[in-house]
Amino acid sequence: MIETPPAHVVTVTNLIKQFGRFAALRGVSAEFLGGKLYAILGDNGAGKTTLLRTLAGLNRPSSGRISILGSGKFHDICGQVGYMAHPSLLYDEMSGMENLGYFARLYGITSDARCAEVIRAVGLDPELARPVGQYSQGMRQRMSLARALLNDPKILLLDEPFSNVDLNSAGEMVRLLARERDAGKTIFLVTHQASLLEGAADEFVWMEFGRIIGRTRELKRPAIAEESAT
Amino acid sequence: MSAPAGITRVTLLKDLRLEWRSKDASNSMLFFSLLVVVVFSFSFDPSADESRQIAGGLIWVAFLFAAVVALNQTWAREIRNQVLDAYRVSPAPANSLFLAKAVGNFIFVSVLEALMTPLFIAFYRLRSIGPAWQLLVVAVLGTWALVVNGTFFAAMSLRTRSREIMLPLLLFPISLPAILAMVQATTAILNGEGARFWMTLLVTYDLVFTTVCLLLFETVLHAE
After folding, report:
1. What is the DSSP string of A82-110?
2. Are B89 and A102 within 8 A, CB to CB?
3. pLDDT, tens digit, for every residue of B109-131?
4. Minimal Cβ distance to A56: which of B22, B87, B89
5. pTM for the whole structure
6. Which one of A78, A90, A131 has the shortest CB-CB distance to B91?
7. ipTM of the shown complex
8. Which domains, from first to last, does chain A contain?
C-alpha cells in the first residue's frame, strides 16, 4: 500500500512584509505539518511576531502567499484559528468568565460551559469574579491562552505565552499545549524561553533578519549563513 | 457563527457594561455639557425671544463637543490591551461591531441630552411656540447623524498618533450639513415655523452616511 504523505496545514511562500521602507519579513518560505508544535525562536526584531500576526490575518503580506488549511483567504478559516498576542486581548473591567462569554459569542458559542472548561484547563477558577485588570500578569497570560483555546481551533498562534509567568505555571501551560498538540492541533509558539519547550516542541524554527535560517529538532541554534546576515 | 444581529447585541451589552463600570465617557460628557450650559448662561442674559433664536445653536454645539468625548472613548477601550485584534481574528462581521458602537454612542449621547435639556430650558427660559414633539424627532435624527459619522471617523483615526485632534478635524467638516439642519430645525420649531425641509435633509443625511459607513467600515477595521 502506498502511504500518502502527511498534509501541510500551513504553507508560506516567499512572504515579504514591509512597514514603510523596513522589511520585517524578507522572503519567508516554509511548510508546516498538522498536529505539531513549532517553537519560533530568534532575537528581538527577527520577524517572529510579524510572521505570527501575518498568519493570524492581522498583517497583510506585502507580497508572497500564505495557505492555511488549504485556503489562501484568512476570512474563510478564521473560525479555526486561535490567536494569543503579547498584550492580553482582554477587557480589564470584566471578569474572566465575562470576557470569554463575550468572545465565545463571536464564534457562535452560546454555552458558558465551554468558557468554564477552558478556564479550568489553564488552571484558573471560572468563579473568580475579580476583573481581569486586577489579575497578576501570569493569571492574565493564562486567561489569554484560555481565550485563544475557546473556539477549539485547529491552528493555534501564540506570541510569548510564558512571559511573566512563573516556572510552575509555565510548565503547566507547556503540558496543556502538548496535550492540545496530541489532540491534533497545530501550534506555532513564539518565545524567548525556548528551554521550557525542550521535549515538548516537535521543531524549533529559527528566525533572523526577517528570514527562517534553519529548522531543528533539538534546541540547538543553527549557524547563520553569511548571506542571511547581510 | 452567531447571526450578525446577535453579535451586535452582545457587543452593545458589553460596551454598556464597560461604560457602567468605568464611567469613562459619561463623566467627561456630563461635566463638559454642564460647563457649557453654566458658562453660556452667565455670558448671556437673553430674553425669551432671544433664547429661542440662539438656543438651537447653543444646544447642538454643546452636544456636539460632548459627543466627541464619548466617541473618542468608544475605541480607546478597544485598543487598550489590543482587544480589537481579538475581534479582527474572529469570524464576526465588521458591521456588527460598527452598529453596536454607533448604537452605544447613540444611547450615551441621548441620555446626556435627556439630562441636559431640562437645564437648558431652565437656564434659558425656553418655551417652544411650535410643536415640541418635533424637537424629539430632530434630537433623534441629529444625534444619529453625529454618532454614525463620529463612530466611523473615530475608528479611522484610531491608529493615528494624535487621534483626539484628528477626530474633530475629520468629523466637523463632514457633519456641517447635519449641524446646520439640526440648528435650523430646532430654531424653526422653537419659533413656531416649519421645519420640514431641515428634517428631510437630516433623514437624507442619516440614510446616506449610515449606508456609506456600513459599506466602508470593514476596510477601516482591517486597515493596518
Report:
1. EEE-SS--S-TTSBHHHHHHHHHHHTT--
2. no
3. 999 999 988 888 888 777 878 78
4. B89
5. 0.90
6. A78
7. 0.90
8. 8-216 (3.40.50.300)
